[in-house]
Design goal:
256 residues; alpha/beta; Rossmann fold
Amino acid sequence: MRRWLPELLALPLLPWLLAQGRHTRRVTPRMPEAAGERHGICRPSHIASPEALPFTLLAIGESPVAGVGVETQDQAITAQLAHKLATRWQRPVSWAAFGKNGATVSDALRDVAPQLPDEKVNVVLIAFGVNDSTAFRSSARYRQDLETLADQVRQRLRPDLLVIAGVPPLHLFPALPQPLRHVLGLKASTLSAAAQALASTTPQTIFVPVHSNARDRSLMAVDGYHPSASGVVLWAEQLVAAIDDGLDGKIHRRTN
């Protein structure tokens, strides 16, 4: 029953919600994907083991992975996470971002997954859910699409750790008016629960919820919909702590 709560709330409010959605799209500033290369290497100021091979990180996701909300790819989540991992572990981190603005998981299966390299990667981040929430994708369909994507990622990239990010808290997005914000927030939470359930039954996979501070407007970009550079840094800090725990020293202490 709980997973259908957003639909049950939305049904009697549908004309109002549709009108709010159209108005929000019309008045919300359109932000481009960030400029710059979508791959690189982050090097710490001091490398404890100079012979260490770079730790490898790849992210696949929707607009934040594409860098919407920040100016350059170096400010986007994949590079920021790589920077924090390199600093934490004192070894170089090679990163690559495969993001598409507006993508659902289904879109990524069609358009992004075929572009993934066929090579070993230490950690893969999967970050979707906002567009699946606004499309009112069912929890079962969202989980099925995520599972298919995770299977393809494991086959091609053979990660030591797969990280599935929670859906961002849409109930905190300033760009969304009420009651649309509340309904989409509920939808996001049900999709997050589906992602968490998938991760809990999948080996070498962790779920990391997205936490934010509703009172700190600086964490959001000017559109009130995407994370700002400060918001990305906060998200990266949450992810790096979870990755460190998930790997439990198995990777970053190796030198080859």
